[in-house]
Amino acid sequence: MAPKPRVVQAFRSMKEIGISEEKVKPVLKKLLMLYDKNWELIESENYRVLADAIFEEEDSKVSDPKKGKTCDQEESIDDEGPMTDEFVRPLKRTRLKTQEGLASSSHPIGSSDVAETFLKEPKVEDELLKSNVGNMRAEIMPASPGPVSIQHPSSVPALSDHSGRDKGKQIVEPTPNYKGKEPMSPHVPSKGTGPERVSVALRIKDLAPEPSIIPNKCVPATHALIIPKEEPFTDDIQQDEVPIAVIHPDSLSRRDFPVGDFSTEESNWQEPPESLHAAEIAGAGASASVSEMHTSCELATVPDEIPSALEIASSPSREEGNEMLALDVSKKSPARDARDAEKIEGNGCVVGRLLNGSFNNHCSANGSVDDAGGEGLVVAPQRQLTPNELRCLHDANDITKGEENVEIPWVNETNKESPLSFQYISENLVFQNACVSFSLFRIGDERCCPTCLGDCLLSQKPCACACQAGGNFAYTPAGIIKEDFLEECISMTRDPQKQCLLNCTECPLERSKTDDFPEPCKGHLKRKVIKECWSKCGCNKQCGNRVVQRGVNCKLQVFLTPDGRGWGLRTLEKLPKGAFVCEFVGEILTISELYARNREKHTSPVLLDAYWGLKGVPKDEKALCLDATCYGNVARFINHRCLDANLIEIPVEVETPDLHYYHLAFFTTRDVHALEELTWDYGIDFDDLDHPVKTFQCRCGSKFCRNMKRPTSKYFEK
Ligand SMILES: C[S@@+](CC[C@H](N)C(=O)[O-])C[C@H]1O[C@@H](n2cnc3c(N)ncnc32)[C@H](O)[C@@H]1O
């Protein structure tokens, strides 16, 4: 029997946004059952409910691959030919998840699977995205040059494992400082008013039909997805199941994340008074496909078409101020099962957020807010956002979009602004020309510890990895950096007496400014480097010499600073000296690419120049930096503090002995209290007007502030 016209039309509409008939059919069938064949609901807003339900279905499959196709998908519907151009799933973090299994000694060495662990297909670099961050400032953060020399090992245990998703976090403590370097710093947002900024914040999770269409009371408790019945596809199906993509606020678990969960009695954190705009979008981004045994993920080469599929979630008839989007974004991990909900008023405004069991109502353009103890629906908003805007929406519960081991919320206790657009990534990705490839083949046994078992830090005899580090590991069994190692890092950065600048014979920075007559190298700070065990080592993933590669594991929060420094990062728990906080993650650019971007002043880079002065003249494709302006992780929110910052950045060698590429990890330089803002010294020379990236008026408040000494500064001490 040929499908009915409404079915055909639904297929057509979905096809227009790149969703195949095969995907539409089972979901449509379920919706018809759930909505009791109320086609108006399904057809409203250009089939928004249908599209969202499909996305959720897809996301649920990703989180549970075993689900595979639904039985309905096997059924056939004869009408139009199959549709193509399916939307591509967003890139997900692969590092920890995949590595977990790979670290095992039982894993065949040399397996391409292992090599692929770190390979990620890049996401797309798009100009629109850049424009979205147009009001971000660009500066160059401290670079990190430096040699390597690691000290003794110690033991191993992992730090707290708050999320339960990973383990082994640690504590570290450094004491940085320094000057005249080339720092980099991520960009930043000014107080929030980027022209293209989308003030989104939905906690979307569950999308729902317009309240005006489905009264709250009529909506039964929700599930994210309903298991379809194996019945012939027809729009005559009757069903009274729970609507897909409709969420009942009460069914959302209350988040207990920050409040009352600090490990220190010093905590005085309180739940933000008002709900924050939060948005979460899934589905935008490129699919992660691992390719060869090279690591490269080139952001520049991935087509950027997929996100268009999300636009259906918004209504063409948008009113001023309705910037919320209500896409039903699926869960990404078990950690996301417990979430707050935000309610959005019919016209698209975020209405409330479930916090500690109660709804805090907020913005309601038309004044009607449902605060009936969570009886309302989460409704989708209206404005048609571009794919790039969608990609960059931030979920207030977790700005990482599930990319990290732990959720990292953001709060704004000052105004209604939300963080500027950027794409969260948890691993560095090659933009285009950077030469970053690592392979098992290139790592000789002398550069790894294939015969180790379990935890290298517990071994009586230093393993090969320890030997490369000077015979000692940098970490203690508690997972923090050893005191002496850390102190040396700090003094090499802060103490003019201990600083050592390495000069390139031909500096990539100067070369990028001009090929004709490059100026002499201004020097790159020599640094100590940490060498971690990796996939070719015989130890396991919980080995004490694998800290940075296990990712973020402490409770962090992005917040709007009240003193004009934009957004910042703070810890929600006490951190010991030497604890690993996070890595600086961004796009891997060549210095030439960085300069090209800097002309637009959109960058927030950190130079990977630790070895420039040691290794001769790095070729252009090997003179690298990280830029977190458009793609980055939570480190992009860390503000600068002159000299006495509580974080220090330390180069970390993980996958490759290639000196031109390494990870840059932040460790605490001292004990840090809960709720204390995390800062690092970008290494900016505020007097260097020739710096490739724009500097800023420093408001770090440190008594060592270098900017205060500037006569032009209002902070100048007379
Ligand atoms: C890496 S970003 C840090 C996050 C940034 N605050 C934001 O809102 O995204 C660097 C930018 O933050 C601001 N910033 C960081 N530290 C600052 C400081 N000590 N004083 C004033 N502005 C600062 C500057 O605009 C700088 O360009």
TrEMBL record:
Superkingdom of this protein's organism: Eukaryota
Species this protein is from: Hibiscus trionum
UniProt keywords, alphabetically: Chromosome, Metal-binding, Nucleus, Transferase, Zinc
Gene Ontology cellular component list: chromosome; nucleus
Name the UniProt record assigns to this protein: SET DOMAIN PROTEIN 18
CDD domains the UniProt entry points to: SET_SETDB-like (cd10538)
MF annotations from Gene Ontology: histone methyltransferase activity; zinc ion binding
Start and end residues of each SET domain: 554-683
Location within or outside the cell: Chromosome; Nucleus
Compositionally skewed regions (Basic and acidic residues) per UniProt: 60-72
Major location (coarse): nucleus
A Pfam family: SET
SMART domains cross-referenced by the UniProt entry: PreSET, SET
Segments of this protein annotated with the region Disordered: 59-84, 144-195
Extent of Acidic residues compositional bias: 73-83
Keyword Amino-acid biosynthesis (UniProt): no
